[in-house]
Structures are given as C-alpha cells and as structure tokens.
Amino acid sequence: MKKIFLLLFVCSAMSASSQELAFGRKIVDTLTSPYFWGRGYTNDGMKKAADFIAAQFDSYGLEPLDGKNYFQKFSYPVNTFPGNMQLSINGKELTPGKDFIVSPAARGVKGSGDLMQADSIDFVNQKKMLQIVLKDKLTWSVEDAADDFTMIDVDKKSVKGLPNEFNVNIENKVLKDFRTANVCAMIKGTIKPDSFIFITAHYDNLGGMGRDTYFPGANDNASGISLLLNLAHYYAKNPQPYTIAFVCFAGEEAGLKGSKYFTENPLVPLKNIRFLINTDLAGTGEEGITVVNASEFPKEFAMMNSVNDQYQLLVKINPRGKAANSDHYFFTEKGVPAFFFYTLGGITAYHDVFDKAATLPMAEHEDLFKLVVHFNNRLMGTEK
Fold it and tell me: Where are the domains of the chain?
C-alpha cells in the first residue's frame, strides 16, 4: 500500500511539473508567432503583446496594480523599418535577417553603385552615404533616432569575393512619440497587503525589419514572460501573506525605458517592495543561472542558494555584481532590493532571427518556477 501511495505521489508531482512546462511552452509559442511580429514597433506588435498579457492577467483573476487598469502608458522616440528592405551585393540578392541586418540607426536609402574598400571589412559609397560591414555574426538592436548615413552589416559567408557593387532599397521611419505601456497586475496579500514582492520581465523584443522579416525573441524574452505568467497563474490560486505584483515592461530593448518610467512614476511606494525578481533570458539553464546583484544582497543570495540546495533544482547559481543590463537596474538605483537572473547553456541565438520557439529548450523552466516560489516563501517567512 505504501508503494502505491508513493507511486501516486510521484506521478502527481510529475504531472504538475509537465503542466508547468506545457503552460510555459504555449506562452512562448504564442508570443513568438508572426501575429506579434517580434513584439516591436511595426504591425502593432508591442500593443498586441501588451493586450495579450493583460488578457491573461484578467483570465487568472489578477487585479490591476493601480486599481484601475493594467496599463501604465508612456512614450518615447524610435527608428523603425516598416517598408522596403532589399539589398543585393555583386548581383546576388540577400535575405534580410539571415544575410544582412541594417543598422538600427540607419536612414533609408535607394539606388545602386560601386563600393570602395576602406579596410578589410568596410566598404563604402560616399554618394549614397552607404557603408557595408562584413561580419561573422548578425545581431540587431533598437535606436531612438536615425543617422545621416546607412550602415548595413552583411554576413561574410553570404558574399563571394569582396563587395564591389550594390543595389539597395531600404525604408525607415522615425516615430517621435511611440506609445506603449507597462502591463501591471497583482494578487493582494492576505496578511500584509502593503508589503510587496515584485516579479518582473520585459515583453518587448526587436520587432520587424521590413515587411517580411521579424525577430521572434523566444529566449529574449518570451521565456521570461512565460515564467512570469506561470507564476501569476499559480499565485492567483494561492494568495500569499504579501502582495505579489507582476510588471511586464515595454521598451527594455530601447534602453530600459519601461522600468525607468515605472521607477519615476511608481504605482506603489518603492519602499514597500520587500524584494524584486527580474527574469530575462530564461529559456535555457543546462549550465545553471547567473544572478545579478548577488554581491549587493548577500543574505538573499545565500537564501536562494539554500533553496536550490534543498530542492536540488539547478546545477549552479553563479554570483554577479551590480549591472545595468536589465529592468532590475533602476529599481536598485532607487533602493529596492532586487535580483536579475538569466539562464546559461543551450542555444546561443540572441538578438537575431534564429531566436525561435522551436529551438528553445526551456530545460529548467519548472526548476526556475520552483526556485522563485520557495525563495519567495523564505522572504515572507512562510518556509524555513
């Protein structure tokens, strides 16, 4: 009989874990689909993602953090590429995203001509103010304005011989007042509702480059949003002594815009935040995680390691000091204790078109979920 009960317990635990992973995968698959177009600045990608997240919060039964609605609206300028995105070198048509990436600060350019070699990797046409740069790897980002020239990174493997002639048709559009929103929700605490634990992640990615190419952003950061939503779903069913708040930031890829705006216009007193956990790049984990701010908050870092050791979750938790590399940063600058963790190992796709759901292992999704839950229990004093 004892063996039967033990088997049932193990099967139940395995079923719960598989449900968490299935939940997370479904969110990643959804947010990386063409409908959301890279959760960026064209085809309403970022707005569609914000609406989706708000609908998830509502379906779980979470309240808006400000008591009114889920959206904390703000705006900023950004350079976008909604139209033509064509380039040929030496008569060969190149594929956007795979063969070339336009500089995020590039202006539009149209025409053809010869290229002059400036050095081993740079080739220029002064008349068109065009610069071609040969690269081993293509990565993209976001800029708030356009330069007075056009720089294009080209995968050196896609060009035979030295680039000597080009044909180009690229369109850009500077949006001086791109409007977006942080998406903010909470589950009110049962004993200390004015004490908060924040769980945060950015939902934006790079968006699209032209009409046919978008950056899925599976690891960065559909993975973090999937973990956050999984935790929101769990906490909605299991209210805690403290209020658990969830903030999904916009504009992280443009320079931590959403988190900066939140800390300058907080929806709750920042001094009431007991701790903030920010998750970004949460889709791998075969080699463990790195925790930013570990040296800033050694007591909490020891607590997290204790949880990991007790439950045998991740192979390693690496400490890292203070860094302005994700949305935790401006909170820390305002005196809010915070960790930012990112996973290690697995795929190397980052800020490129290859960061896809199909190749994202999500190897430690369930263990990250458990790590956060038990760590929060220690913070609130409900678990030793």
Answer: 19-79+176-380, 84-170
